Amino acid sequence: MKRMKRVFHFAFAFLLIVSSCISVFSVSCPVVRAEKSYNQLISEKKSKENQLKNVKGELDRIASELSKLDKQTSSILVQKQKMDDEYLAIQSEINIYKDLILIYGDLLGEYETQIDTLESRIESGTMAFLALMKISQTYSTMEKLSYALSSKDFSEFVSRTTNTTDILDYDYELIQSITNDIADLEVKKSETEAVLNEYKSSYREQVILAAVCEVRIANATSLIFEAEADKEKLKELQAEEERTNAEISAMLVSLNKQIKEKEKVLFSGDMIWPLKTASCYISSSFGYRSDPFTGSTEYHNGIDIATYGSTPPVYAASAGKVILAKYYGGFGNCVIIEHGTSNGKTISTLYAHLTSYSVKVGDKVKLGEQIGKVGTTGRSTGMHLHFTVYSNGTAVNPLNYVKKP
Ligand SMILES: [Zn+2]
């Protein structure tokens, strides 16, 4: 009998060792694809709200850049309009000067032709006059004539021959008159030349001004093009940000709806021990412990309830909705039930290492409803239930909620 007792104790100790587990590596809320937990929804909402804030900030920045560019563009456009007007005025000045230069050039040519004509008339007149002079030599005083004929130029000759003879008076007066006409024309010619030169210089000035104006207009035009290109880019960016804004806003609407739905469900506060069998014991408690695999200190986010190698049914600790039911890494076959909120905190429970589970995501379960069987799937060293209680996504000691009956 004593020997039997010792064997039993040995077996018991052995079971104790093998049933401990390392079921939890991460204390954060497990990722659920089919349905998000309340805390996931809340954290997603926060992240989306931050994203939205950034997007709105970016949209504000783009809007202010656009308005700055608009102001710049319209100011450049006003300046360019002035330059265009100025350019047109210069062009019309240039055309006026062109016309004046042509007119005065023609006039100058006219005077030159007239002078040429008169000069040739004088030349022929002078020849005739000299011929007459030779003929009249016999009727004139030889001394006077020789004096006149020794003149070094025509005007001297004219003065010397004044009153020389009556016969020569008429021709002399004619020549004198033509000479005066030529002198008048020369004056007019030089006046015209002076005016023409002024017009030419003004024309050149205006041409230079027009060239300067053209450069300035080209610069303004390229500035406007650059601003327009920048505006196009900004508008593309704006459209993209607005799409993102709409997407995030829609996501937030959906998230808020889901959160409200979840908040409608209140945690009753009732929670029972998840096993009904008496053949079980807590093989590993909540908190820091020695890892049964590595021996190093590790955080254990729930309690392990060992079942002496048997696979009794596992029951929902409280009423709720199944948000995860699948093989889940180190947890093995795993079920998570969300029970609703209590004082703004959402309560959920996790059941791990199950042999099998009999619920699926979205199922509503009652308190004490069977959800699966104890097992040793995942990272486990023996038949046991790993049981975690989450309050707002943080694992808390399950013994604060349940007691082994
Ligand atoms: Zn465990």
Structural features, described:
The protein has 405 residues and is α+β, with helices and mostly antiparallel strands. The protein has five helices and 13 strands. The protein has helices at residues 2-19, 38-135, 142-149, 154-160, 169-264, and strands spanning 281-284, 287-290, 297-300, 303-306, 313-315, 320-327, 333-342, 345-354, 356-357, 364-365, 370-373, 384-391, 394-396. Residues 1-5 and 10-33 have low confidence and may be disordered. Bound molecules: zinc ion.
Structural class: alpha+beta
How much is the radius of gyration in Å?
Answer: 59 Å
Number of strands: 13
Low-confidence spans? 1-5, 10-33
Number of helices: 5
Question: Which whole number gives the mean pLDDT?
Answer: 86
Keywords:
Helix Hairpins; 2 domains; rod-shaped; disordered N terminus; single chain; 5 helices; three-stranded antiparallel β-sheet; alpha+beta; 405 residues; eight-stranded antiparallel β-sheet
SSE layout and pairing:
Layout: H1 2-19, H2 38-135, H3 142-149, H4 154-160, H5 169-264, E1 281-284, E2 287-290, E3 297-300, E4 303-306, E5 313-315, E6 320-327, E7 333-342, E8 345-354, E9 356-357, E10 364-365, E11 370-373, E12 384-391, E13 394-396
Antiparallel strand pairs: 1-4, 2-3, 4-12, 5-11, 6-7, 6-10, 7-8, 8-12, 9-11, 12-13
Helix pairs in contact: 2-5, 3-4
